Amino acid sequence: MTHAQETRRGYEQFVPPWAPPGMYFDPASELILPQGVRLASRGRVARAWFLGLALFAVTLGIGYIAWSLFTWGQGRTPAQRMLGLRCWQPEPRRVAGREQMAIRQITGLCLNGELLLGFFISLISKDLRSVGDFFADTVVLHDPDGILQLSSEPIGVTRRHYQPAGVPRQ
Fold first, then answer.
1. Is the entire prediction scored with pTM above 0.70?
2. What is the chain's mean pLDDT, rounded?
3. Any idea of the CA torsion for 43, 46, 48, 53, to the nearest 10 degrees?
4. If exposure means fewest CB atoms within 10 Å of the residue's CB, which of 72, 74, 142, 166 is most exposed?
């Protein structure tokens, strides 16, 4: 291998990964996200957590649980809905469904009480993932304009197999 080839290979570490159309690479979280949304800030995550506690207390828990069953189908909790946040699955590149939201909320509540420990874990992690997010494979995104819609198909993928430029077909 020549010196020029070695140097060129060394620069590959600084090239962001390829992102499909309608998506971008977020260097802070190292995730590929949809255009027009961004990873929720620590402040927004904290506000959603405190708002969720307040809503639970005001509705005596029963109203909050019923409201949650409705909003989980949209990939969010009631507090996230009020703050323009949505849970996203990075690997299949789609909004979390009711099943992922149930896993996220129940494992978060059971494994760490979600009252204190889970709150601090999510604020410390690089991509703001709580224990529930880890098990459901979700991240919380700020989606103020409602760009993310529920779909069974991943964003950035068409019905026919998408082939990036420069990659040979197999």
1. yes
2. 78
3. -150
4. 166
